[in-house]
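User: Is it possible to get a 3D structure for a protein together with its bound compound? The compound here is nicotinamide-adenine-dinucleotide. I've pasted both below.
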Amino acid sequence: MDTKKIISKLENQREFLAKEPVISVQKRKETLKNLYKNIKEMTPQICEALKADLNKCETESYMTEIGLVLSEISYMLRHMRKLTKKKRAYSPLSNFPAKSYRVASAYGVVLIISPWNYPFLLSMEPLVDAIAAGNTVILKPSSVSANTSKVMETLIAKTFEPEHATTVLGSVDECTVLLDQDLDYIFYTGSMRVGKIVMEKAKEHFTPVTLEMGGKSPCIVDETANIPLAAKRIVFGKLLNAGQTCVAPDYVYCQESVRDRLVKEIECEIIRQYSVDPLTNKNYPKMKNEKQFNAVRELIEENKILFGGRVDENTLKIEPTILNSTFEDRAMQREIFGPVLPILTFKEIDEVVKKVNSMSKPLALYIFSKSKENQNLVLSQCQFGGGCVNDTIMHIANNHLAFGGVKQSGLGAYHGKFGFETFSHYKSVVKKSNLIDMPFRYQPFNKVKTWFIKFFLK
Ligand code: NAD
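Assistant: Yes, that's possible. Here is the predicted structure of the complex:
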C-alpha cells in the first residue's frame, strides 16, 4: 500500500475524532455486537485462512483464536458500562470541600501491530479492548499470515466505518510509514528485535506503547509432581501451533530423580495426542515458512535427541523432538518457537530460582509440583510475566487475569479489564465546591496558616 494511502487512513481517523472526540458507549457496544455477529458468520473463512497460513485444524483455530476473541467481546459487552463509569476517590482534608474521581478517556488513534503465529487472536483481541475503551484503530497484521490478514481486512471493513477501525496490509515498509506518524498509542506484539524499533520510533512523539514479546519460558517439574498429568499438559502447551506460541513451555527443567519417568510419559503423550507419525497427521501444524523451519531444525543436535528429530522439508513440519540438553546447547541460546523440547535437570529447587533469574525475564513460567513450599518459592522469587501451577498456557484463557511480560518479555498487559485500562488514560479530577474557600494556601502566609498547612500535610 502506498504511503499516501496509509497516511490518508490515519488522517481520516483524526478528522473523525476532531468532530466526535468521545465515541459513545452505545456506539462502541453496537460495533462490538456487530463484530461478534460477523466473526460468527465468517468463522469458516477465518478457519480456512488459518489452515492455509499455518495448517491449523478447525478445533485448534476455534479454541486458541476465534473463541478467545468472542469471549473477549462478551466480556467487554458485559462490563463496559462499569469500566467507563467515574471511579470515586478519597478527598483528603487539604482539599476540603471537594469530590475526587478518576475517569477513563480514550487515547485516540491506536496502532496495533500483530504477528503471524496467532494472527487472528493477537490482532482482534487488542482491537476489541481498544474499541471498548473508545479509541479508533489502525491494524497492521503480519504479511506472513497473509490469508488471515486478508480475511481480517474484509471482516473489519464489514463491521466498522474506516474512520473507526481499518487495516493496513503489508510488511516492514508499511509498518515503518505508520510508525513514523504521530500516533496516540502503539500496541505491538512480536519479537524483541522489532520491539526495540517500535520503542525507538514511539519516543519521537512520546507515544505510549505496550510491547508483547516472548522469550524462553521455563517449565519446572519437581519430584512431587503428578508426572503423567504433567506430561499431558506439557505436550498440550508445547505442541499447540507446533510450538510457535509465545507462552509455550520453551524447555523443561526437572528434578533429576524424575527425569526418566517424565521423558517416557512425554513420549507416550506425544503419540497419544499426535499419533505415531505427527509428520503425516493433518491436524499437526507446520512451521510458518522455510526460514523458521530451518531456524528450528538447526537447534536439533543429533547426539542430543531422546525422541523424534525427523523433519519434512516439503510440508515444513518438524517432528515433536525431545532433547537431552544443557544450558550451553544451541537450543538454550534463544527462544525455540517450534516443537523442540530440551530437558534439563536440577538437584535442589534453589538451583532453579538462581538459574531462571540469571536469564532474560520470561513471558511465562510453569511449575508442576505438589509441594506448596516449592510452588511458593519459585512463584515468589522468580520474575516472569504470568504462568500456571500444574498446567501450561491456560492463564491466557482467563480474561479476569492480566496478560503481559516483564522487561525483555514485554511492557504492559491486556485482556479483560486490564485491556480496557491499557487503552485508556485515566484523568484524575478534583471537583471543588465554591461555597467555602479555605484561606491557608494563599499568600501572604502567617503563623496560623503555616500551622494549618503543617497540620494537613504530614
Ligand atoms: P516480528 O517482530 O517479526 O513481526 C511482528 C510485526 O512487526 C509484524 O506485523 C511485522 O510485519 C512487523 N515488522 C517486522 N519487522 C519490522 C520492522 N523492521 N519494522 C517495523 N515493523 C516490522 O514477530 P513475529 O516473528 O511475527 O513473532 C514472533 C515473536 O513474537 C516471538 O518472539 C514470540 O514470542 C513473540 N510473540 C509474543 C506474543 C505475546 O503475546 N507476548 C504473542 C505472539 C508472539
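Residues 284 and 422 are 35 Å apart (CA to CA). The mean pLDDT is 96.
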